[in-house]
Specification:
Helix 4 (about 85-95) crosses helix 6 and helix 9 packs across helix 11. The protein has 12 helices and 6 strands. The protein has about 230 residues and is of the alpha/beta class. Keywords: DNA-binding, Phosphoprotein.
Length: about 230
C-alpha cells in the first residue's frame, strides 16, 4: 500500500514548504499537490484525488471557509490555520471539516497523527480549537439566545434554510447595521460576517441588502427578481 496522499492549501509558500517537509519525513505520507487559495485547492483536489486536504482559513481570492463545503465532497479536510476564533472553528465543523489544528500548538508527530485520524473519520483538535468550540457551544446554548426568536423569525429560518447564526445576522442587517457593527455585536471578524452574508444572500435569492431585507421581512417573494 502506498502512503497517504495529502494536498496542502495555504497562501504562504513558506508554510506550505514546512508542512510538506514535515509530512514527507513521516515516511508514509506523500504531498500530492500544493495550492495557494481555495479555488486552486478545489481544482487540484479534483485532479489528484488526495486522501486528505490540509486547508488554511484565510487565503486571498477564494478562502478556506468558502472552499470547504465543496472540498469535503471530494476528500476529508483538516483545517490547519492561525485562525483561533470560536465562530470560525464552529463554522468549519458545521461545513464538514474533520479536524482543526492551530499553528504553534502541534508537534510533527501530532500533525501526522491528525492526518491519519481525519482520514479514518476520527476528529482531531489542538487545545485552542477545542476550547473555542466549547466556548461557542456554551454561548450558543445560553437561554437568552433562543428566546429572542419570534415565531415569524423561526418561520423565516425554516423557509429560507438559515442557521441560527444566519438568522441573527440577517436580523442585524434588517436593523440597518453595517458589517463592522455586526462583527462587533457578534464578536466575530468582518471577514466572517461577509462569508455569512454571502450565504444568506444566496439562500434568500438576493443580490443586495435591501432585496434581502424585503425577502426576510416578507415584503417580497424570493425568486421574483434577479433575471432580465
Amino acid at each position: 500500500m502506498a502512503g497517504l496522499r495529502v494536498l496542502i492549501a495555504d497562501d504562504n509558500p513558506v508554510v506550505r514548504a514546512g508542512l510538506a517537509a514535515l509530512l514527507s519525513a513521516a515516511g508514509d505520507i506523500t504531498v500530492a499537490a500544493q495550492a495557494a487559495d481555495g479555488h486552486e485547492a478545489l481544482s487540484l483536489t479534483r485532479r489528484h484525488a488526495p486522501d486528505v486536504v490540509l486547508l488554511d482559513v484565510r487565503m486571498p481570492g477564494v478562502d478556506g471557509i468558502s472552499a470547504l463545503p465543496h472540498l469535503v465532497r471530494l476528500a476529508p479536510v483538516l483545517m490547519l490555520t492561525y485562525s483561533r476564533e470560536s465562530e470560525i472553528v464552529r463554522e468549519s465543523l458545521l461545513l464538514g471539516a474533520g479536524g482543526y489544528l492551530v499553528h504553534g500548538e502541534f508537534t510533527p508527530e501530532d500533525l501526522v497523527r491528525a492526518v491519519h485520524d481525519v482520514r479514518e473519520g476520527r476528529p482531531h483538535f489542538t487545545p485552542t480549537a477545542a476550547g473555542a468550540l466549547l466556548d461557542n457551544l456554551r454561548t450558543s446554548s445560553h437561554p437568552q439566545r433562543t428566546v429572542t426568536q419570534s415565531p415569524e423569525r423561526l418561520h423565516n429560518s425554516a423557509l429560507f434554510g438559515l442557521s441560527s447564526r444566519e438568522v441573527e445576522i440577517m436580523d442585524l442587517i434588517a436593523s440597518g447595521m453595517s458589517n463592522q457593527q455586526i462583527a462587533a455585536a457578534c464578536f466575530i471578524s468582518e471577514k466572517t460576517v461577509k462569508n455569512h452574508i454571502n450565504r444568506i444572500f444566496a439562500k434568500l435569492q438576493s443580490t443586495s441588502r435591501s432585496e434581502a431585507i424585503a425577502h426576510w421581512l416578507g415584503t417580497a417573494r424570493p425568486g421574483v427578481s434577479g433575471h432580465g
